[in-house]
Amino acid sequence: MAVDRPTSFWLRLLKQRREHMYDETLDLSTPIDWESEEERQAAIAFFNAAFRAEEAGLRQAHEIAAEIAAWDPVLAETLRLYGDEEGWHRELLTQFLAWIGGEVRPMGRVVRTFYGLYGRAKRAETIVLVNLMFETIGATTYRLSLRTAKQHPAIRQMLTILTRDESFHVPLNAHFLRRILAHRPPSWLERLRLQAIYHGLSFAMIAIAAASRETAGRFDRLSFRALARSYTEHLGRLFVNAGHLGFEPSRLLLYLFGLSRADLEGGDDALSAAAAERNADRSQVVVEAL
Ligand SMILES: [Fe+2]
Ligand SMILES: [Fe+2]
Fold this sequence. Notes:
With 290 residues, the protein is mainly α. The protein has a single domain (7-21, 35-280), classed as Ferritin, core subunit, four-helix bundle (Ferritin, Up-down Bundle). The protein has helices at 7-21, 37-68, 73-99, 109-120, 124-148, 153-183, 188-220, 224-240, 251-256, 261-264, 273-280. Helix 5 packs antiparallel against helix 6 and helix 6 (153-183) packs across helix 11. It is globular, with a radius of gyration of 18 Å. 41% of the residues are buried. The structure holds fe (ii) ion (2 copies). Residues 57, 86, 135, 166, 169 line the site of one fe (ii) ion.
């Protein structure tokens, strides 16, 4: 079971990270020798998807920070610093996309529908739950792609930064969710609503995995099954290890991907404070094998 740390713990880590954040720059000295134009286009699609996630994370974090400041100024500051990290990722991705000859593109249909719904979410707990799930699939995608995508120092550096930081954002968002739910415990109807969002999103992630195979698959070289199974496993593990948050993975999804609830218990607990501290240290780039 994940041990929650006080908000001051997270704020201290974020402040430490901020000290060196802007010193870390991309080394774009070696041009990429793409295998095909399709591979380059798929890379542009892949990093566009990452860009959209950063943009949405940044905007939503700053919006709810303004609201939370009224009842917990320290939590609000923590949210702002978290949003700033997503803003920094957005800058790095803008630079990286230009360097590979791409640009920020309009969103595809599935992604547009998703962000349309996300943008309309107004309640802090809904926004944070969606963020938490998105951080988890982001960290999962980047970590898997590090092994399967083209091995080039700049691609590796970009994916490593994203893997490391999104892995840190997972337990951080779990903390936000706990604090918000503790501040204003949801009624049974609100709980039901959150459950519906959790389950709806768990299935939506599978649709996103399928849609991204068409656009980004030539870059990350991940099969639909490998990606969707990994999403189910990591989202399942996240919430099984945080039983107190009250979300249970769908039995149907676990069944579809040959996973059991026992597979998800313990093991790599992404919510632990130890995992957060591991991923918090910017001077140490830790990318663990899955
Ligand atoms: Fe990010
Ligand atoms: Fe993030």
